[in-house]
Amino acid sequence: MKLKNVLIVVNDIEKSIAFYKNLFGLEVILDNDGNVILTEGLVLQDAKIWKTFLNRDSIPRNNACELYFEESDIEGFIKKLESYGESIEYVNQLMTHSWGQKVVRFYDPDGNLIEVGTPM
Length: 120
Prior knowledge:
This protein is α/β, with parallel strands linked by helices. It has helices at 13-24, 47-54, 74-82, and strands spanning 6-10, 28-31, 35-38, 42-46, 67-70, 89-96, 102-107, 113-117. The chain starts with 5 loop residues before the first strand and ends with a strand.
């Protein structure tokens, strides 16, 4: 058995596609009417479909999991974040852990937690 994808719930598929493309360089592999598979194994699912399948609402900003990306040019990425056309809600600004890794945490437009750190 292997983990194939990670799915996150979003309210606006097109806005989320643009967010992950512009900031992370992810591309659409398959667009299946409310379920969009991006490169790197990220799947976006429309919140209405999620609610239909589970009969429950998603809970944004629940801080129960995060998407983790690595970026060697973290300062360049921070500039890209700061110049992004939409407002970014930060959990923490760029910081350096005691072990030397630099990280920033923020939410995507739907409240999914993202961490970007320098390679370990």
